[in-house]
Amino acid sequence: MKRSIKQTMEKTKLAILLSKVKHVKSEKLACVLAIQTEALAALHDFMHRRRFTQLMPVVVAPMTDPLCHGVHDIEIDCDSQKLKLTKSMILHKFMALMSDHLSHVYIMSPCVRLEPKACKDSGRHLLEFTQLDMETKDLQKEGFMSLIEELVGYVVARVKKKCDCALRLLERELIVPKRPFKVFKSADLKARYGKDYEKIMSEKLKEPFWITGFKREFYDREDADYDLVWPEGFGEAMSGGQRHYKYGDLVRIMRDRGYDEKQFGAYLELARRGLLKPTCGGGIGIERMVRFLTGLPHIRDVGPFTKVPGEDIVL
Amino acid sequence: MKRSIKQTMEKTKLAILLSKVKHVKSEKLACVLAIQTEALAALHDFMHRRRFTQLMPVVVAPMTDPLCHGVHDIEIDCDSQKLKLTKSMILHKFMALMSDHLSHVYIMSPCVRLEPKACKDSGRHLLEFTQLDMETKDLQKEGFMSLIEELVGYVVARVKKKCDCALRLLERELIVPKRPFKVFKSADLKARYGKDYEKIMSEKLKEPFWITGFKREFYDREDADYDLVWPEGFGEAMSGGQRHYKYGDLVRIMRDRGYDEKQFGAYLELARRGLLKPTCGGGIGIERMVRFLTGLPHIRDVGPFTKVPGEDIVL
Q1: What integer pLDDT is reported at residue B1 of this predicted model?
Q2: Contacts with B8 from chain A: Cβ below 8 Å
């Protein structure tokens, strides 16, 4: 009986499986998960206190975030309807806010992104991760940035207070960041440090900071967008901005950038009818946040079943 | 410009889109989401107080829950590796508990299941839903059932107290259920009511109740499993049980039922090495819970982007 099963696993896969088991059973992972659990509880408490309405995830849908960095769509056949795995459910949170009865929404939203193998050693890319995805009609850029600064401060302070033992075992010293966070313009940083400016700045600084003014997706206003960046080399924490919602703006940008408008037909129809609203928001990657909180070099280690681009997946 | 966009949407699809918009913008949906938000906060608070470790979802993986009711696997190509959309991440929660440092885990886990069109009018099937998926090493059947009774009582009481206004608008009167809940044996009910016994009992009773003794998946112990059922016709609330974890038992049941063992090669290898632990747990469907709490006839109405088998999907 032993042999018949052994044959179903090749030697290489078996070695990977056993190293995964070692990771799953490690005290280190348990410490990471204790910190993650506290951080998630803190996030939910904060959002609940701020009266954000929680929506459920959308994992498959006729349309998804196009994402400008070239992650291809994954299509699924569902009774002759073509659905996609959502790379993020950003368009859905905008659509939820069509309602006059909802002011701000959030979702713990899983995002599947088949990133290129080249991301393997970035230390911060996963094929699947979860985003705390938030959107509000009541705040603009400055107000939203200030909300996020409070959120980050709250989470760090709470983890520091409640996870003392786990932090000590991981030899991680956390600093509750001072508000307001520093703000830099992407153009200025690029002029000074070249294209890797975000990475360089993240390695230089000791507290989270903002970079503003990116050219991103068709829905983001270049004059009112922002990235939150973790310090100590942990890189991007959150992307967000005020959004384009007017039909004319959306179509103009899509045409400028050569989008297939048909893919967003339903969304554009809503815009054309004036149903979309001016909103502002962002998405914080949970696994990257946990990596920052725990101080781990590679995001592979922040969970039992993380999947890194270019690596064999056994579980 | 108007015409060029109109052409991208067929008339039927446009009509569906506009009826969806009406739903998204309705006061009724806002009430449902207020109740959902409170219920989710209550669930997280409860799990956190009971010291469950929260894991992140696994949406794609080499293996998934086989499910005995014939929902087919959805495969994805990822750099020459075949992955599946998880119909549930039940095997992953068992594997997380290989760790001696973890006693109980939970996940807010999205499940994608391409259910047959015939489920369209059941009022309780969705192509995608979220499960509060729990597993523990510290409790057995009776202890876990009692934990769930507390959880349900806590959620109902909190929603009743905090969402008075939304409940009134939905004309929903909630009763905090008395503990312990009634327990029935599936064989007895089947003998008395025929194959639709769960539905009939759900319609008959006024408070949540248990049915035990099912023949289910290879991982469930028939002598120690249970379903929680919502009353007033709302049907199944949770499935769970004590689990098989010994290699011999798993292989015997798989062979009895004609499984493709290779699909579970890694899992069986862990069992063969004695790494899996005796655990007990279950999964509560969030959307079905919200349907019960809000008293809505059809699960389609519990969220802005619900997808019902056999219906056109526009958003």
Answers
A1: 46
A2: 261-262, 265, 268-269
